[in-house]
């Protein structure tokens, strides 16, 4: 793969046979993934480095991308994770005092094949009407492959249903981040695709954070002996993460306070005995309205998920897995998708969105404080559930 030139041809092919021709952006070659669209008007560097986008070709609805370049402060993980990148207008000039380089060069360095100069509005409308689908970007000599063969290559790509991607994005070894300020306890963070901002916000709440590989076992968790457990965001199908569900069920039976976000919300749902399902085109962007039933307020949230928990949004439910009473604490105001769960008899809750939201809204940042209070009350013996939070 080599650096893009202005005349290098590229084509985006969708599973339904749709083709969009443009010019190469980033690395040159071939890439396959699930085509999804992201609606954020800012924060493209955070989007690209969010491990939840692993395996996906991301279509940016904002037309102008790359104008602020990239820097060493904003990445949410160690590399770019998207399978491919699709933009309308790639900026040829970087204009920002914080920039350390260009987005084009960063895409090349991380081997990300992209395409520019295509009608991203038309692509987004196609995905909204048809749903997220398999896709491929072909650039340089790969763009010369016959159309019929390209389509067959795309159709033979991985299906996100049944796909476990945690092992591809998780840390290989444990690492620790000490508490900032008054220490309240130790926190085990299962890295399913955790973001830097999440770890920072947790340490700032007084947790000694231990970031652990997704292969962690119940025996290893008990040996570590944390005061609480956290499940991060991440890519893939929650139905393909049985080992993480079993780990969580064991921790809940042991009485560990639990907080999960995004993928962690889906896994809590499965641990409690509910099902999950794939959304037509998911929720991706930094402008998703959510109703918080606990506070009666609307939060504008940052989201990136293609799967959701299957549970009724009204009333108190009984956990099919035997963990007592549960309620849906948050739901989407766009389509009434479950956006949060709260156990009433054990110390566990979760949300489907990203309260760390960098870049994005900070409406839900208070959830880290809610978790902190839950752990303090649990460890002091004054609270055994989330019902009063």
From TrEMBL:
Matching Pfam families: CPSase_sm_chain (PF00988), GATase (PF00117)
EC number, UniProt record: 6.3.5.5
Pathway assignment: Pyrimidine metabolism; UMP biosynthesis via de novo pathway; (S)-dihydroorotate from bicarbonate: step 1/3; Amino-acid biosynthesis; L-arginine biosynthesis; carbamoyl phosphate from bicarbonate: step 1/1
Single GO biological process annotation from the record: L-arginine biosynthetic process
Molecular function GO labels: ATP binding; carbamoyl-phosphate synthase (glutamine-hydrolyzing) activity; glutaminase activity
Residue ranges occupied by any Carbamoyl-phosphate synthase small subunit N-terminal domain in the UniProt entry: 8-138
Region (CPSase): 1-183
Keywords: Amino-acid biosynthesis, Arginine biosynthesis, ATP-binding, Glutamine amidotransferase, Ligase, Nucleotide-binding, Pyrimidine biosynthesis
Record: active site: 262, 354, 356
Binding site for L-glutamine: 52, 234, 236, 263, 266, 304, 306-307
Catalytic activity field: hydrogencarbonate + L-glutamine + 2 ATP + H2O = carbamoyl phosphate + L-glutamate + 2 ADP + phosphate + 2 H(+); L-glutamine + H2O = L-glutamate + NH4(+)
Subunit field text: Composed of two chains; the small (or glutamine) chain promotes the hydrolysis of glutamine to ammonia, which is used by the large (or ammonia) chain to synthesize carbamoyl phosphate. Tetramer of heterodimers (alpha,beta)4.
Similarity comment: Belongs to the CarA family.
Biological role stated in the UniProt entry: Small subunit of the glutamine-dependent carbamoyl phosphate synthetase (CPSase). CPSase catalyzes the formation of carbamoyl phosphate from the ammonia moiety of glutamine, carbonate, and phosphate donated by ATP, constituting the first step of 2 biosynthetic pathways, one leading to arginine and/or urea and the other to pyrimidine nucleotides. The small subunit (glutamine amidotransferase) binds and cleaves glutamine to supply the large subunit with the substrate ammonia.
Protein name according to UniProt: Carbamoyl phosphate synthase small chain
Source organism: Frondihabitans australicus
Highest classification ranks of the organism: Bacteria, Bacillati, Actinomycetota, Actinomycetes, Micrococcales
Name of the gene encoding the protein in the UniProt record: carA
